[in-house]
Amino acid sequence: MIRTLTISALVILTVTVAHCDADDPREFIATEAQLRIDADPDFDGPDPARIEALLADGLSREDAVQIALLGNPRLRAAFAELGVAEADLQQAGVYSNPSIETVVLWPPEGDTEIDVEVAWNIADLWRMPVRKRVARAEADRVMMTVLAELLNTAADARLAWDAAVSVAQIVSETADVLDAARSLLDRLRERFDYGFGSELTIERMTAEVAETELELAMAEAELTVALARMRRVLGMPTEVAVEPVGELPEAPADLPSGDTLTSIAVRERPEVRAADLGSSAAHLDLRLERRSTWQRVEIGPAYKRTTAGSELWGLVLEAELPIFDTNRAQRQRASAELSAAEEGARLARVLVREEVEAALEHLKLATHKERLVRERVIPAREHAHEFAQTHHMQMELSMLPVLETRRELADARRMHVEARRQVAEALVELEFAVGGRLP
After folding, report:
1. DSSP at 94
2. pLDDT value at position 46?
């Protein structure tokens, strides 16, 4: 009876595994992604059918973000870190395996002598609760790090799409300018054949056409590079045709104050929350090291049958005495890591505040530049070009002012495209700085 109870207690003790009832980190990240960027990550890998459907009517800005969450390689690698953290969390709740030691002796006379000892490290009893909390904090930190990578991927996708769309607009503008320049050159040649104009004007216009052809070739090459970068960010193969469609976003009419945006960023940025969780994990790790002075204290049942045939039951206790190694160095290391983690958490808040301030100023400057070019520069260039054309047709001006004002107007329009891209880039920067979406 005693033997049966002892074995049963041993079995119950050694198969106990701590259970983690934490929420699924993937569900948390998916919910946050929907709230912050209105997109759904897929943790199982890219879905070709879904990607094909998103590309069917051209690639919009929202589609680019969604496809990036499905196929971006760096984000896929970050998703894999969730599995590593989950495995570490599960392992933290597992008791050490018991040890068994058996000695069998065959004397010349009498019965066989048998010694059996089964021991379990009871140091797990005071170390495991803290060890599980350390692993839980680390798993939550990894979850926040993955969320930060997801938001960074979404921002990269938007920037890549904005760059491709703006360069495509520049290509279109340059192509229109080239068509107009070639048409003008043809008219000048026709007029020259009838005795009007000069050879100098034709040569200057020929050079103008050649320079515009070079500008178009450079813009098309830049578009090819922009599309290649966008494919990389989206995790798409090079053979897949991508055609961005849509307009660049405009800055919102009203923005909250800088203090409001900063407070939102400090509260919502996953990097800040990850730094705080890293600090909590370091604090718990220090507690764990303080409980690890006695790292091996084994206790369990012991059984012995003597050569005389008698049976003895008892307990075995074995411990590693902390005489030379008292775990002092590990406690010092954990204390230093805690100090570093706390400083890192403070630094994360400083950096977030700086990023919000910088992004807000970039957006204000880009918005002012776009408005200035749209409302003052382009209308003035258009008026100057129309004036030059009108007075040239009335034989009051030479062709030179027409050529100069036409190029200045083309440059102003390209400047406006670039200004709109800078507005979109600053908007992405500010959205990322506050944690995904402007209030």
Report:
1. B
2. 77
Q: In the sheet where 311-319 sits, what is the strand order? A: 99-105, 113-121, 297-305, 311-319
**SS3 of residue 310 by DSSP:** coil
Q: Which amino acid is at 332?
A: Q
Residue 56, C-beta contacts closer than 8 angstroms, at least 6 positions apart: none
Q: Which of 26, 25, 31, 38 is nearest to 437 (CA)?
A: 38
The pLDDT of residue 208: 86
Name the residue ranges covered by the structural domains of the chain.
Answer: 2-434
Per the CB < 8 A criterion, the answer to whether 163 and 239 are in contact is no
- pLDDT value of position 158: 94
Q: Say how far apart CA 423 and CA 249 lie, in whole Å.
A: 8
Q: Give the C-alpha separation, 37 to 368, whole Å.
A: 26
Write down the pLDDT at residue 169: 92
Residues 82-119: tens digit of each pLDDT: 999 999 999 999 998 999 999 888 887 777 888 999 99
Predicted local distance difference test score (pLDDT) of residue 277:
92
Which positions ≥6 away from 376 have C-beta within 8 Å? Answer: none
- Residues with pLDDT less than 70, the chain: 1-23
pLDDT at 239: 77
Question: Where does residue 438 fall: left (phi above 0), alpha (psi -120 to 50 degrees), or beta otherwise?
Answer: beta
Tokens matching residue 7: 């074995």
Q: How far is residue 308's CA from residue 109's CA, in Å, rounded to a whole number?
A: 10
pLDDT per position as a tens digit, 152-201: 999 999 999 999 999 999 999 899 889 988 888 888 888 788 777 778 88
Q: What's the Cα-to-Cα distance from 152 to each of 41, 78, 156, 240, rounded to whole Å?
A: 13, 12, 6, 24
Give buried/exposed letters for 139-163 (b at 16+ CB in 10 A, else e): bbbbbbbbbbbbbbbbbbbbbbbbb
Tokens in use for 122? Answer: 């009871």
- The hierarchical CATH code for the domain 2-434 is 1.20.1600.10
316 bridge partner residues: 300
Q: What span, in angstroms and rounded, lies between the C-alpha atoms of 320 and 101?
A: 17
Is the Cβ–Cβ distance between 3 and 120 less than 8 Å? no
Nearest one of 380, 391, 386, 435 to 413, comparing CA atoms: 380
Residue with tokens 């005795």: 195
